[in-house]
Design goal:
With 142 residues, the chain is α+β, with helices and mostly antiparallel strands. The protein has one domain (22-141): 2-Layer Sandwich (TATA-Binding Protein), CATH 3.30.310.70. It has 5 helices and 5 strands. The longest helix has 16 residues, at 126-141. The N and C termini lie far apart (54 Å). InterPro entries: DUF302, TT1751-like_sf.
């Protein structure tokens, strides 16, 4: 029995990674306004932001170290969080949905344009997470 389970786990690990895409919306305002709006939209739902990843700062700081002078973003942050209720629901349906947690909403400024968005998720139970992320983004855009 243990060998069968182990073989199944290794079989899942061998599957090719599915490409995920991003859903983005233009934000009519500054990067600071957008980050405030996203943070507020997350917190207003009673969710806790576990981490704010300052990806734009990291890319700008390390560009020269990796031999690049390309500025990808003026600024970019990702807000990472979970929903205990929704995470339990999607992981009870399929424990491997753990691979998608935590969930994130990003804000980025590129070439003077600010955008807000999130990644897409696979069909099935994870569409509930995608719907939550889109609700958060839509609230931030108002």
């Amino acid at each position: 029995m243990k060998r069968t389970i182990l073989a199944g786990v290794f079989g899942l690990m061998a599957l090719p990674a599915m490409a995920q895409e991003a859903v983005t919306y233009p934000f009519n305002g500054t990067f600071g306004d957008a980050t405030f709006a996203v943070e507020s939209a997350i917190l207003d739902r009673g969710l806790v932001i576990d981490l704010t990843s300052h990806v734009g700062e990291m890319l700008n700081r390390t560009g020269a170290d990796v031999g690049s002078d390309v500025k990808i973003f003026e600024e970019a942050d990702i807000f990472l969080f979970c929903s205990a209720t929704l995470s339990r629901e999607v992981m009870e349906a399929d424990p491997m949905n753990i691979a998608h947690c935590p969930y994130g909403v990003f804000v980025a400024e590129r070439e003077g344009e600010v955008m807000v968005g999130h990644r897409t998720y696979p069909e099935g139970e994870m569409q509930k997470v995608q719907a939550l992320l889109d609700e958060i983004v839509q609230d931030a855009l108002e």
